[in-house]
Structure formats: structure tokens, C-alpha cells
Amino acid sequence: MATQQTRLLARAAVAPSVLMLFIWMIVPLVMTIWFSFHRYDLQNLDTYDWSGWENYYYFLTDPAFIQALIVTLTLVASVLVITVVGGVLLALLMDQPFFGQGIVRLMVLAPFFVMPTVSALVWKNLFMNPDSGLFTWISQSLHLPVVIWFTNYPLLSIILIVAWQWLPFATLILLTAIQSLDEEQKEAAQLDGAKPLSYFFYIVLPHLSRAITVVVLIETIFLLNTFAEIKVTTNGGPSTSNLPYLVYLTQQASDIGGASAGALIAVVLANIVAMFLVRLIGKNLEA
């Protein structure tokens, strides 16, 4: 049993790390809040002074803000639908015994370990290139019109790239959940003659509810910060600029105050979504 002295020693040992982590997190946040209330233009430092809520008003009334918010929510919702539905289907398939199961599982999970910038370059140059991409070759082989993805369907292209990256994560979590399904339940369903759809909707899907909720929560937190795929493929246009990219554009214009206000607005919106999902998870865990 730990004594009072050992507990004090343990707290003293971890205190420097906790203090360093606290400073590492708090200092940038405090500086961002401070700059958000100042007129701070890197190209005109003489104008640096207190601006109050002016930067927030400027960012929220910017016509690009609503568009960026719509793009952000569309991107998050679309990727979540694709990865959860696709993840459930892939998990069901991979749970079945077949030859080469280990290699197939490794190949399915591989995209999750590719860096976002690299995956965006791969899709841009190897798959969606209008001159030499794989999709162009397939369209020409089938005598179909060639699709110029990043011009005709820029947001859809980014959704496909991001979904390709996150589908393995959803599959891994859901496959683990399926494999934890009680064997007695499976045998009971088979003895009762349950049809495949009934077995899925009444046994498998309820069992996956917690895993699906965890997938949605974790993916949402990261998808709200999607940036590299947009920067590499469309550079923010046409109509593919989400909130992180809008903050980046504001910062590129040397408006540090406006970019700081935009970053804080994005953080607040992300926290609202996270709180909603945490409450959703809490309800599922209590069920």
C-alpha cells in the first residue's frame, strides 16, 4: 500500500511533465486569444492596437465563412457515412474465413498508415489525373467521357480521398467489435433459423452500436481539421475551402488577428460537435 511519502514523491516526479504540458497547451491558446482582440497585420505593424470584437465580426461576416462552414459539415458528414457503412460491410466480409485472410486484412488497413499529403498526391496523380490517371484509363476503355475530377467534382474528390484514408480505421474498430460477438448468440440465431438480414439488424447492428459511436466521435474530431488533402489537390478552390483552410488563407493575408479569431471560432464549433457526440456516447454506454 502506498504511503503518504510515496504518493508525494510520485506527484513531485510527474509535476514537471504536467507543468510542461500545461504550458505547452496554454501559452499558444492565450497568445491566440490575445491576438484575436488586436489589429495585427504583419505587413503593417504600425496599426497594431486593440480592436475588441472587430476580428470576430470580420470573420463571421466574411461571405466565405458560411461557405467554409457548409463545406466542413458536408465533408465530415459524407466521410462519416461512407466510412461507417463501408466499414460495417468490410468488417462483415473480413470476419468470414477465406484463403489469404491475413494478407487481405493487412492490405485493407494499409491506407490508414499513409500520410494525408502522400495519399492526396497519390489520388491526384495516379487515380484522378485527367490525362494519365487510372480512372481516365477505365473511362476510355469503356468509351465513357473522361471526368476531370478536381474541376467538375472538387468536393466529391476530396471526400473520396479522405474516406479512403479513414475507412481502414472504421473497419478495424468494427471488425474487433464483431469478433467479440458472443458465440452462443450466433449459434442460437442459427438454430432459430434467423435470416441474414434479421441476424444483422437484430444481433450484429445493436452489438456494433458502441463501436460505431466511438468511430464517429474519433473521426469527427480529426475530420474537422482536414487541411492537407485540400491544400494539395484543389488549393482551396473551387468551393472546397473548409474552416481550417479559411483560417490558413486569412493568415496568409498577414492578418494575424483575423486568423486568430477564426481559429478560436473553429475550436468553439469543434467543441460543440464534440460535446454533442460525447453526450451521444454517454447515452449509448448507459443503454
Overview of the molecule:
The chain has helices at residues 4-36, 54-60, 63-94, 101-109, 116-127, 134-141, 149-152, 154-179, 183-191, 196-223, 228-233, 243-252, 256-286, and strands at residues 38-39, 49-50. It is mostly helical. Strands 1-2 form a two-stranded antiparallel sheet. It is globular. The model has no long low-confidence stretch (mean pLDDT 85). It is found in: Cell membrane. InterPro entries: MetI-like (IPR000515), MetI-like_sf (IPR035906). It comes from Labrys monachus. Residues 69-277 form the ABC transmembrane type-1 domain.
List the helices and strands and how they pair.
Blueprint: H1 4-36, E1 38-39, E2 49-50, H2 54-60, H3 63-94, H4 101-109, H5 116-127, H6 134-141, H7 149-152, H8 154-179, H9 183-191, H10 196-223, H11 228-233, H12 243-252, H13 256-286
Antiparallel strand pairs: 1-2
Helix pairs in contact: 1-13, 2-13, 3-8, 3-10, 5-8, 8-10, 10-13, 12-13
Quick rundown:
By secondary structure, this protein is mainly alpha-helical. It contains 13 helices and 2 strands. A two-stranded antiparallel sheet has the order 1-2.
Strand content: under 5%
- How do the strands of the widest beta sheet line up side by side? 1-2
Beta strands, count:
2
The residue ranges in which pLDDT falls below 50 over 5 or more consecutive positions are none
Structural class: mainly alpha
Order of helices and strands: HEEHHHHHHHHHHHH
Mean pLDDT: 85
Q: Roughly what percent helix?
A: over 70%
InterPro entries: MetI-like, MetI-like_sf
Subcellular location: Cell membrane
Keywords: Cell membrane, Membrane, Transmembrane, Transmembrane helix, Transport
Pfam family, one: BPD_transp_1
